[in-house]
Amino acid sequence: MESGRLESSLWVGNKRYRAVLTGWHFNWTEVDKKNRDKKTISVPVAEVVGVEDGRVEILPQKLVEDTDKDFTVFYVKRSSSGGSSGLLWRLGRTQFSCPSRVLRDQWTKHLRTALKTHSPLRPHKLLVFINPFGGKRKGRKIYHSVVAPLFELAGISSHVIVTERANQARDHLLKKDLAGFDGVVCVGGDGMFSEILHGLIGRTQQEAGLCENDPTVTLEPCSLHIGIIPAGSTDCVCYATVGVIDPLTSALHIVIGDSQPLDVCSVHHASALVHYSVSMLGYGFYGDVLAESEKHRWMGPLRYDFSGTMVYLSNRSYAGIVQYLPADPLLSSPRDKTRCLSGCSVCSRSTEKLFHHFSDSGSLYSSHFSQYSSDLEGDWVSVEGKFRCVSLTCMSSSCPRSPLGLSPSAHLADGTGDLILVWDTNPLGFLKFLYRHTSTQDQFDLPFVEVHRVKAVRFCLPSDKEEEPCEKTGGLSGDEVERSYVETESRNGSQQHLAETGTRGEGTNEQKTVSPFLCGLCCSKTPALSVWNCDGEILPFTDIFSRIHGQLVRLYARGIEDGAALHSCSEECDKCERRCILQK
Ligand SMILES: Nc1ncnc2c1ncn2[C@@H]1O[C@H](COP(=O)(O)OP(=O)(O)OP(=O)(O)O)[C@@H](O)[C@H]1O
Questions:
Q1: What is the mean pLDDT of the chain?
Q2: What is one process in the GO biological process aspect for this record (predicted)?
């Protein structure tokens, strides 16, 4: 007999079922139905959230009826999210009745043992940071009403810190004792996630004795997982890694110990680390929109629409030199029309490549990497001209506004980023580019747009551009307008391969300080410089070097589940070889 297998009749209400625990799956099928339309519900053991004695309810509030012959199983139940790209997860609950207490105890014991065996990454102890001011200021309420009951059900202990200031979570992670924790949960938006990201990566490098400032160093992957409970005004990282912005769905991913590796881009200026980014590093349009929106915080989330419109109308483009190190084109391409979904094969292949010591060492994290990466070797490409925007993203950066994202075929964990160059163009062309982000039309299929899959990027100003405050730079002169036109025309011809890294770029304006603020839109002068928008933060430098670190962190997530590809519940479900995943 298969170990861990258990089979018996059980009752749900007044209907009799044949229940089977095979080790990997727990199934129950109604037995008394005469006709063929019997329905099997099949739950992978890895998606069982908890097993309780008696008749138990936990949401919206806990109710326990401690009976002798009953037990309650809580599990992940999917439902269509209607609009979002992923699936909503809900807490399924079924109360089973047994003929005897002995059988009941046998069932609960077997189910609990199966959970331990088949879900090795389930967290036992979590450190939780709640930003009480994020989004609509509902972080605390969301945590206590939705997340905490699930943690209790799953036997997870948590240490909760409600932050009192910005950067408290980051500082805590950098300095305090983290022994015994399996992961860190942030209840907030993208800003709060960024704090956790910086704290965890920084702490991991400190402990590994690695210098974060050196872009050539191979950083140590973080051993603690990050869970994101969306409670901000922008929750793009959650959306791009789970497919929906829903605290219950995210809490369930944490509880069952899902694990999604994530690439991180480090941004350096003049030999110092400036920031880490996972979603978007953007100069030009996206930088201007962020800078403008900071002036209108009082508008709330509306400020992004307002600022986007104002910046669009200001019709700006900026001179720059972009150098990039292309990724291996044989592995994937940003134009290959694939989507990085749960179980992505491109990311899986990259895991083997990125952690090729894995099989030797037996542990992902104990593998000994060479401290200096060979990742930055290769032929760099350089382009120069005027850009509407230059963006680098390590993921699709999909969000509810742009369901396919900035780069629809980008991968979460393949060790590459997508560099998007939007050259100077007329306002209508740029509007078309922006508009295509909200539809399924290909935003890269435009003559003034390029996209490259890359491992590293440098950006610097042409030597004649000074990083001066806009009052001094004034508007573009006639010469500059002319130059812009010529460069735009010849941009493909201007590409040149660099034999080595660093002929220009990092450090060319080390001593200069950027004016982080743009001219007001009422100002008749056009600034010569934009700013970098790094995951919603303005960077105080223009010349940067950025590099993608493959799978540097792990989230309690599994990527976006493809609802369309999954078999939906049908009456014939028990005859179907695939698991019925949409249990209505
Ligand atoms: N107690 C606090 N007081 C003030 N700021 C805080 C506090 N806790 C965290 N923060 C900071 O608030 C910023 C925004 O937080 P978060 O991302 O959670 O919310 P948000 O509403 O999405 O933010 P925004 O719209 O400003 O990006 C973060 O950068 C974080 O550092």
A1: 84
A2: ceramide metabolic process
CA torsion 534→539→545→549, rounded to 10°?
-40
| Distance, CA of 185 to CA of 125 (rounded, Å) | 11
Looking up tokens 């890694």, which residue turns up? 241
Residues spanned by the domain of 84: 6-120+564-575
Q: How many angstroms from the chain centroid is the CA of residue 80?
A: 20
Find the 190 Cα to ligand 1 centroid distance in Å.
Answer: 8
**Mean pLDDT comparison of 60-69, 87-96, 575-584, highest-scoring range:** 87-96
Residue 435 sits in the same domain as residue 527: yes
Cβ(210)–Cβ(153) below 8 Å: no
Say if ligand 1 is within 6 A of residue 233 CB.
yes
Ligand 1 pocket test, pick from 128, 129, 133 with the greatest ligand atom count within 8 Å of Cβ, gives 133
Residues 25 and 116 in one domain: yes
**Does residue 237 fall inside a structural domain?**
yes
Does residue 533 have its Cβ closer than 6 Å to ligand 1?
no
The model's pTM = 0.85
Contact 194, 533 (CB under 8 A): no
| Together in a domain, 299 and 250 | no
CA distance 570 to 330: 40
Q: What is the pLDDT of residue 61?
A: 83
Report whether residue 536 contacts ligand 1, using a CB cutoff of 6 Å.
yes
The answer on 228 and 95 residing in a single domain is no
What total number of domains does the chain contain? Answer: 3
Tell me the three-class secondary structure of 29-96, residue by residue: EECCCCCCCCCEEEEEHHHEEEEEECEEECCCCCEEECCCCEEEEEEEEEEECCCCCCEEEEEEEEEE
Alpha-helical runs (H) found in 188-320: 190-208, 236-242, 247-255, 285-294, 302-314
Q: Is 562 a catalytic residue?
A: no
d(CA 334, CA 453): 6
CATH of the domain at 136: 3.40.50.10330
Which residue is catalytic, options 53, 190, 246, 258?
Answer: 190
ipTM: 0.97
Same domain, 91 and 150: no
% of the chain with per-residue pLDDT over 90: 67
Distances (CA, A) of 563 to 88, 244, 246, 253, 582: 10, 12, 16, 16, 8
pLDDT the model gives residue 576: 39
The strand pair at 183-188 and 125-130 is best described as parallel
> 584 in a domain, yes or no?
no
Q: Indicate whether residue 165 lines ligand 1 (CB < 6 A).
A: yes
- Say how many C-beta atoms besides its own lie within 10 A of residue 480's C-beta: 16
Asked whether the predicted pLDDT for residue 569 surpasses 60, the reply is no
User: Does residue 318 sit in the same domain as residue 203?
Assistant: no
Residue 416 sits in a domain whose CATH number is 2.60.200.40
- For residues 86 and 144, membership in a common domain is answered with no
